[in-house]
Amino acid sequence: MEFADLAKHFRRDAEIAELMAEHERKILDRLEYTRPSAILFSETTIAEMYDAPDKCLLWFHGAHREWLKRNSELMSKVEHQTFYRLIFIPYPSILGNLPARKALIELIIFHVHFQLWHGIVVGAVFVDPRKPDIMSMLKKLNFISMPQNSLFLDYPDFYQSEHASGNIIKDTKAFQAHQKKSDILRGLRLEPIWLHYDERNYSKIRLSGWRWQSLRKFFSLLYGPKIKCPYCGNIAEPFSLDHIAPISEGYFQTINNFRPLCKICNSQKGAKIGKNPYVMSMILPDYIYTKDLDYILMHRPSWLGEISYLKNRSSIRKELLFNVLG
Q: Would you say the C-alpha torsion 289, 291, 297, 301 has a positive or negative sign?
C-alpha cells in the first residue's frame, strides 16, 4: 500500500509538471518583451498540507523544482517581466507539537528562499487553515494572472482535484477574474508581506528601511505570537533579528540566514557564527538532497548579473511592485 501511495504522488507530480509546462508556453507566446509587465502566481501547497511535510517535499522535489528551473532560464532572457508569487503560509504556532512546528518553520524558510533565489518577488500571506472560510478561500486562489496581457489561468481546487486542470480566461474577462481574486483577499483582510532578493542581499551593507521591516514582520508571524529566544529560552519582546552568520565574513543576507533572538543574547553573540545557515539537510531526505540544492543555498543567483545591469532594472521592478499590482 505504501508503494502504491508513493506511485500515486509521483504520477500526480508528472501530470502537474506537464500542465504547468503547457501553460508556461502559452504565457511566453503572449509576453511583449518591449514593455514592462507582471506575472502573478499563487500557491497554497504548504497551507493545505501544513501537517504533512512529506507531501510538500514530494511536491517541491517533483513538478515544482522543474518549474523553478524553467523560470530561472526565463529570468536570464527577459528584462522587462517581473514574476510575483503569493505564497499562503500557515501560522506554525497552530501546531502544538514543538518538533512538528520547528519542521514546518524550516520547510517554510526553505521554500521561500528557493522562490526568492529564482528571481521571484514573494508576497507571503499568513493564514489559519483550520478556519473553514480560509480553507474555502484557498480552494479559489490557485491561479496565474497577467493583467497587462489580458490573460488569466484559473486552477479551481488545484491541489484537491483528482486530475490537475486549468481554465484559460482572455481579454476583458481576464482582468475581471484578476479583480475578483483581489477582492477575495481584501475581503478577508489578508495583506501580503513583500520580499525579494537583489544585490543588497549579497553585499556587506545591512538591509534597512521597508525591506528590513518586511523581514521583521515575516519572522514575527513565523515564530509568534510569543517568540522564545533559542539561546536563553526567554520570551523575546521585542526581538532582535539576528544574522546567524555575519555578513562581515562574506555570508549572505538571505532569508535562511536570519532568526529572532532576544536583544541581550543578540548583543552578546556579536559577530560570532551561530551555525552554518546553508545546511538544511535535516529536513531533506537523501532522495531529495542534491548538489544543485547546495548551490542554490550557497551562491548568489546568476540572474542578478552585473551591478550596472541592476541599476537599469531596479526602477522597473519597483514600479511594477507598487503600481501594476497595487
A: negative
